[in-house]
Here is the input.
Amino acid sequence: HGQDLESKLVHDRGAFEESFVRHVETTLARNMYNCDNLAAYQAASSTVRDALLVDWANTQQKQTVHNGKRVYYLSLEFLMGRAMDNALINLKGRDNAAAALSDLGFNLEDVLDQEPDAALGNGGLGRLAACFVDSLSSKNYSGWGYGLNYQYGIFKQKIIDGYQVETPDYWLKYSNPWEIDRKEIQIPVDFYGHVYEDYDPNSGKPKKIWSGGERVLAVAADFPIPGYNTDNTNNLRLWNAKPTHEFDFTKFNAGDYQQSVGAQQRAESITAVLYPNDNFYSGKELRLKQQYFWVAASLHDIVRRFKKTNKSQWEKFPEQVAIQLNDTHPTLAIVELQRVLVDLEGLEWDHAWSIVTRVFAYTNHTVMTEALEKWPVDLVGRLLPRHLEIIYDINFFFLKDVEHKFPDDRDILGRVSIIEEGNEKSVRMAYLAIIGSHKVNGVAELHSELIQTTIFKDFVRVFGKDRFTNVTNGITPRRWLRQANPQLAKLISEKLNDPNYEYLTNLGNLKKLEKFIDDDEFLTKWDAIKFHNKRRLTALVKEETGIELDPTVLFDVQVKRIHEYKRQQLNIFAVIYRYLRIKELLASGVSIDEIKLKHYISKASIFGGKAAPGYYMAKTIIHLINKVGDVVNNDPEIGNLLKVVFIPDYNVSKAEIITPASDLSNHISTAGTEASGTSNMKFALNGGLIIGTVDGANVEITREIGEDNIFLFGNLSESVEEIRHKHIYEGVQIPETLQKVFDSIESGAFGNPEEYKVLLDGIRYHGDHYLVSDDFDLFLDAHIKLEKVFGHHGGDASDKDHLHRWVKKSVLSVANMGFFSSDRCIDEYAENIWNIEPLNQ
Ligand code: 26V
Here is the structure.
């Protein structure tokens, strides 16, 4: 019956309409005459949710009966974006929903547009987790996500007078139809208190007891994750922190009722807000509380599920459970499992530890030292006294092994110790994660190589090369092709003779597009779709900024978190250089038309991205971009030759509009700093070309699509250290071109030069850590080269070869992007790290 209902709601127009009307009248307590787009979204999403729940319940049932190994993906961030379009696509019910809504007087796109983004993440790491749960479901794995149900997601960014202003993202203003409250699933989590020793009455052995302190409840909220073209619907479980309602009666009796209730209410602050830092560690107590709260609740949930069928057969635990640590944020799970096994279940230390290390694996997402978590020992000891003891014990046994292995190397002990000695002792979470895992992976080849030769090189000596591996990141083609770029997805399905879009789960099939590389009609269609997408973006830009873009010009895009290492400053400096050159040419009497013919093609530089609220330098870069935009866009001489826009509040739903509309996107991090990047994959999969450094997954993208189809430039990662050294000992050489840019900034061309002093001085006087000066001319050269290819694109129709040069590169990119499906990543994790197999449908 359930399956029937599901299939009806999604595939039967009448049933969808009936359910929609019922939800308007009952769930929303409104009527059809008083139903705006928002209400329509709520009623439609409730209908889709009802359908999802059927698959979800069946899947859980099936997985329980099968009783195979499950993987749990622990991530503090899941940057899901909107759910409804994705659910309709995965259930193959989009056309039906569109037709039903149209019958009722609504337009599906407008209705979808009402949904707030679930923005429970910062950037790459959180979006990767979202792609991974999509692939886990789509490839029929039994895999759950565990995270926190923040009331406030990543802040909303406003641009006021060119400055970033943060406002809270209260995304649960209206009830969330995708959330299934599991109020009955409550797990107590303790903090603070003290540890004492007691005797186990059974064994007579000493035993540690952790008691006292503060108790908070973890209450489950579940989110169904539908797979594409399968009934498999996994679960994403996000925890809410709630007070226990166990009054502190001593306070109560003393008449301090107010304070007693107040302390309880503060429990909810644990899951109130997502920390808005990306690639930067700041040691806040509440953040550590979030981590333990989430890890303890998730682990106890996992253990409870295991014990239901396996009782206390702990040897079976690693055969039933794999846990993937998304960065070091959940590292305390290693300690918590050891505590559960030793303190609560009475296992011997070594036995427990051998179970722990078979269960966990750790993914590193950055080599940036400022992002590596190091929690002060004092803080850990106060918040989690028993855990700190266990960390010391883990370290003791580990260092004993290291000493045994390297008896003549005294220094290595200090280097690999979990505890960093110094003014303030701290716990190095990455080291703990490596020691407690059976596999450690980086997220692209270059990155995995770098972690093994730099930050973790001692651990390669200690544990051997086999503990380390690489899994190059990927993205889900359902959202990032089918959903974001429906016209291109359709053209591909026609060309591949694949009316059911099977290629979306077999992305290697894209390769067959190469056959059509000389098919002019196809290339023209391809180009027209890009143009359509550019118009869509033009409308968004107009709405968000008031700026009118000409969709025929080159759209040159850089959207991602604002960070010095990602080098938005390099990009905007090059834009300024271009503007100054254009002004010079105009001043010397060269006409605009001649400039367009001989010097510069018309382009729009499009930026977007958030800066961490405390990251002053990043905010300065945003301000500069906006000020350059003000000057350039209002210069009457320039016209469409150059425009500069900063799209405020870049997020997943805006990415779905921006990505398919780019001709060229920037992935220009200092070599060796961007672990992988995933937006590079999204752009290439949508037929945008890349200008990039030899960094992160750009390396594998180049290998797959061919070096003729990507514009690489810049110093290589192996030279970076030496160049930095030279900067410090011999000073930084500013090339003439960049000097021109600096001079104009300092002349006040873009507002008060004082505001940009930190930015320029960082390059000139403080060692130019990110090699802007070294890569500037190389970046300009790469532009000259690529603009020759783009030039006259869409112009002189008689010169077909030239006309289609860019488009051909675009097609060849897409045709060779199959490798970057997150389905491939998940298969690699499953085989090489988790040792799990898909469930047959
Ligand atoms: C670290 C920290 C440190 C503590 C406070 C907040 C915070 C938030 C995130 C992180 C993790 C590393 C940052 C990250 O997002 N890395 C990105 O991961 C992407 C997915 O693997 C990858 O594509 C990007 O290159 C990498 O920057």
The pocket of 26V is lined by residues 122-125, 128, 275, 277-281, 327, 365-366, 371, 373, 443, 473, 674-678, 696 (CB under 6 Å). The chain is about 50% helix and 15% strand. The chain has three domains: 1-66+83-116, 120-470, 554-793. The mean pLDDT is 96.
